[in-house]
Amino acid sequence: MNYTQLISELIDELSYRVGIPNIYDKEHQRIMSEILTEWGNFDEKKIIFEFLTEAEPNKNDDRYKSIGYGRYKLKGKEGEDEPTYEKDDKGNYVKLAQKDGEGGDGETKQEEPPQGQALKKNTKSGKSYHDNVVSKEEETRKKLDGDSNTSSDDKSKKKYSKTDLLNIDHKTTDEQLNMTKSEAAAQAKSKDTKDVGAGTAESRAGEAMVHKGLRLLKDGISIEEIEQTFKTLVFQKDHILNSSAGKKWVNASLSTIQKIDETIGIENIEDVSWDTKQGRRAIGVDPNLETSSDMFVRTKDGKNIGISLKKDGKVFLNNGGWAKQSELLLSSLEDEMPEDDHKRLSEAMSIDAYKKDLEERFSKTTETITPSVIKSSFQQLKENPNDQKEFQGSNREKYFKILENPDLLVKKIKMGTANGNEQKSYAKLLQTYHKDEYNHLRESDNGLTTRAFKVLNQSEEAKQGMNRHIIKSMHISETLGLNERIKDGGVDGFVTMYGIEPDGAALNEQTLITLLGSNFKQRLDETISEVRSGNATYKELENFIVNSIEIDYESGQILFKHESNKKYPLFKMSGRTRGIGSSPVMEMVQTPFMAHALKMGTFNTDEWDEKSLKRFKKDIVKSEDNE
Questions:
Q1: For residues 362-374, b (16+ Cβ closer than 10 Å) or e, as one string?
Q2: Which of 31, 63, 96, 173 has its CA at a distance of 20 to 30 angstroms from the CA of residue 44?
Q3: What is the C-alpha to C-alpha distance for residues 242 and 234, in angstroms, rounded to an integer?
Q4: Are the C-beta atoms of 345 and 462 separated by less than 8 Å?
Q5: In sequence order, what are the residues at sequence separation of 6 or more whose Cβ sits closer than 8 angstroms to the Cβ of residue 534?
Q6: What is the pLDDT of residues 366-378, one digit of tens each?
Q7: Which residue in 459, 491, 465 sits closest to 478, CA to CA?
C-alpha cells in the first residue's frame, strides 16, 4: 500500500470537510479518526494517531461546546440563531461571518489566506501547517512501511459514491437498532466519535426501527412481516429495547411507518437516510446544518424531507434539571424582551430563589414540628414497620440516625444549613405523620413556575417572547417551508411524526393549517407566496400565531385561542422535584389534548369518533394521576 498516498488523501478529505485543515485541532483530529474508520484503515489509524501531537487546551475550552465539523457555540447559547465560532490556527475562538475589527469574545479575527498561497504559520513551531503535515507524513510513512502485518490492499477511498455513503448510513442505523444493553453501556463510556444522533440508546434504537422499516417496506416486505421481525428482535436477551417501555417502540414505529406511507407514499421515496454525516452527504443535505430532523427521506422528484420522530404524544419542549433548562429558556428569550424584564425573570427562575423559598418553608414548619414532636413521631415510626414505606432503600439507616438527634436537626433547619439527607429524613417523617406541614414544603414546587409566571404576566414583551419560544420549539417555520436557513442547507420540507397507535399522526403543513383554522389559512395564503419570494418575512406570519397563544398563569397551561373563541390547551409548564431534597426539574410537555387533536386532525372534539374520545378521557386521567 502507498502510505504517503493514504496520508495525502486523508488531508484532502479533511480539507473537503472542514476547509483549512489543522492537525493540531482536536475537532479536526476527531474527523480524521472518523474518516479512517469509514475507510476501514483501523491499523493505520492507530499508528497515525500515535504520532499526532495534541494541542494544549485553550483556557476558553470549557466555555464552548462543539457542534461538529470544527464549529462551536457558547455553552447555554446553543440555539440555531446564536453565534457560531471556529478556532483559528492559534486555538482562539472566532465568531463566524463577523465584520473586520469585531472580536469574538476578545479573540482574534481569522483571515483565510488567498487561494494558492501557503497556509499561515504555526506560531509555536514557525512552520506552516502544510510543512507540519509533510513532516508528520514522512515520519508516519516510515513507521507504516516498517509494519509487515499491514494488508497490501488499498482500503482508502478518497471520494465515496452515493451508494457507498448510504451503505455506511444504513450500517450505522442497523448497529443502533441491533444494540444490546451491554454494547450500549460500552458505547456510552467510549470517547470515540459516535455520529449516532442525540438521545438515549433506547430512543436511537426506536428511531432506527423506523428507518429500517421504511427500507424493508420499499423492498416489498409486508407490514405484518416487519412487525414480526421487530417483535422477535426486541424479545432477544439483552436487547436494548427488551423492557416494558422499550417494547412499545415496536407499535410506535409501525404506526409512524404507516403514517409516512400515507402522507409521503412509500412508492415516492427514493432514499432513506438517518441523521448521519454520510447519510446527509448522500442525499445532498449540509452535514453542518443544525436541524431537528432525526432522519430524512429523499423523494423521487428530488426533494429532501426532514422527519422529527416522536414515540408518542408525550412530547417535551423542555425537560430536565431546572437550572439547565431555565438557562436554555432564558437564553432563547434574551432577544425577545427588554433587558430589565429579562433580568427579573432570570432572578425569579434562578435555582437560588427556589432554595431560599424551600429553606424558609422548612423553617416555618419547625413552629409546630418541635424536637419533642420529632422524637415522639420517630418512636412511633420505629414501632410500626408498616409506616416505614417512605424510608425504604439503602439510605434507611442514614435517615434513622439523623432523626435520633432531633435537637440538632431542628437547629440546622432553622439556620438553613441542613444538607440533602437531613432535609429528606425530616420531610419523609412529615409525609408519614404530618401531612399539612409536608404539603407546605411541596408548595415550593409550584413556586418554581409561579415566580416566573408573575414576571411574564407583567410584561407584554416577555409574554410574546415566551410565545415565540413555544412556536420555535414546535418548528412551525420549518413545517411551513419558510425557514430559509433549513432550505439553504438542502432540506426542502419538514414534518413531525408521532407514533400514536394505531396508524400514527403527523404535524405537517396540511394538519397545521387544519388545526389553526380558516383565519390562519387565509393569512397564510395571503403571505406565503410573498414570504417565499422574499417580499415579506416569516415574522409577519409568526406574529399572527403569537397573538393566538396565551398562558394560563394559574394552571401553567399554554392555550391556543381558536377562531371559534374556544381556548385549547397545547402544552403545560411545570416545575417539580422527585422528592424534597432532590434537585428540581422543568417540564414543558405537550398535553393529551394536543396529541389527540393531531391524531384526529382537528381541535373540534365534536368531530372526534367515540373511540378516540374514550382514549382521550383515559389519557387525561393518566396525566392527572402523574401530577
A1: beebbeebeeebb
A2: 173
A3: 5
A4: yes
A5: none
A6: 999 999 999 999 9
A7: 491
Q: In angstroms, rounded to a whole number, what is the distance separating the alpha carbons of residues 498 and 590? A: 12
How many angstroms separate the CA atoms of 432 and 445, rounded? 19
| Closest C-alpha to 608, from 571, 573, 568, 550 | 568
Give just the sign of the alpha carbon dihedral 67, 71, 73, 74.
positive
pTM metric for this prediction: 0.65
pLDDT digits (tens, 9 = 90+) for 383-408: 999 999 999 888 899 999 999 999 99
Per-residue CA distances from 336 to 152, 459, 551, 563 (Å): 61, 11, 17, 26
Residue 366, SS3 per DSSP: coil
Confidence of residue 627 (pLDDT cuts 50, 70, 90): low
Dihedral angle over CA of 355, 357, 358, 364, nearest 10:
150
Beta bridge partners of 94: 86
Question: Dihedral of CA 233/238/240/245: which sign?
Answer: positive
Helices (H), 434-582: 435-457, 460-473, 476-479, 484-488, 509-516, 518-533, 538-546
Radius of gyration for the chain, computed over Cα atoms and rounded to the nearest angstrom: 28
Q: CA nearest 214: which of 167, 161, 273?
A: 273
- Count how many residues are written for the chain: 627
453's CB contacts (< 8 A; 6+ apart) are 551, 553, 556
Closest CA to 305 of 513, 495, 528: 495
pLDDT band at 193 (very low <50, low <70, confident <90, very high): low
- Domain residue extents for the chain: 3-104+121-145, 159-281, 338-458
3-state percent breakdown (helix, strand, coil) of the chain, nearest 5:
55, 15, 35
What amino acid occupies position 334? E
- The answer to whether the Cα torsion of 74, 78, 82, 84 is positive or negative is positive
Element (DSSP H or E) covering residue 94: strand 93-95
Give the sheet arrangement for strand 93-95, strand by strand.
64-68, 71-74, 85-87, 93-95
Distance between CA 577 and CA 424 in Å, rounded?
A: 12
The b/e string for 82-108 (b: 16+ C-beta within 10 A; e otherwise) is bebbbbbbebbbbbeeeeeeeebeebe
pLDDT higher than threshold 80 for residue 92:
no
C-alpha cell at 88: 483559528
